[in-house]
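Hey,
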Amino acid sequence: MKDPIFTGSAVAIVTPFTREGAVDLPALGRLLEEQLQGGTDAIVVCGTTGEASTMTPREREQAIAYCVEQVRGRVPVIAGSGANDTKTALALSRNAQRAGADGVLLVTPYYNKANQEGLRRHFLTIADGVDLPCILYNVPTRTGVSIAPETYATLAAHPNINGVKEASGDLGVVQRTRNLCDEDFFIWSGNDDQVVPLCALGGVGVISVAANLVPGQMHRMVRLCLENDFAAAGKLQLWLKDLYDALFCEVNPIPVKTALQLLGKDTGVLRLPLCPPSDAHRRQIRQTLVRYGLLAEA
């Protein structure tokens, strides 16, 4: 029987870059400490929100190792190590293991549009090649491919496959997955605005963008769910909805990095092809931060 690598709210942490474009490790360290003080249950580094697709393998390994060193075992550190090439994803996963990560997050291989058998072979190859818990990551809006519940059922038997970050937005997929898989195939929400319904269907938490700003509230929401207080959790989910919407007014992580900068956090530049938001969206983000009491009115 497997245990979940974490329950609760994991922050999909942004990667600060210097004005010259290098990874800003001291700034990352400051963000990590704020997260730990805020109640975050796990750190996901080098994920989509961390702009990992623009980072070199060496930069990824340095960022992961730095997170491991800074966190010092206080919460699990999970490293994004997915790629659209199985050989590359395996190498990145082994790098993450060498850097001391507690687990890896494996996005479906994008652009190739593998069929279900190809997905199965891809994930099994990586899971066979590391000695770490592996969280699958299903986000078809970004990758063009989705993992079927029946594929989850075959993958769930692997001792290193811990579960899935489910970001398809399809609660029917979650229900079918929960019915087909044993209880030790764990499901985390990949969408901040679906935490409560997903937990009601047997999920154990969220890998969150919004936790970059409100780690305590995201932690509390999942705790309430796990304590079966879905009424209180639902109220918190509804209250945070406008914040979630603002953080996805443009493609992630443009809005959340902009929000952190408005709050005085030195997250630096976005790496191309990402760029700053439009003036209208910047205003929306600022107004939302003010509404939630995160930023004083100008």
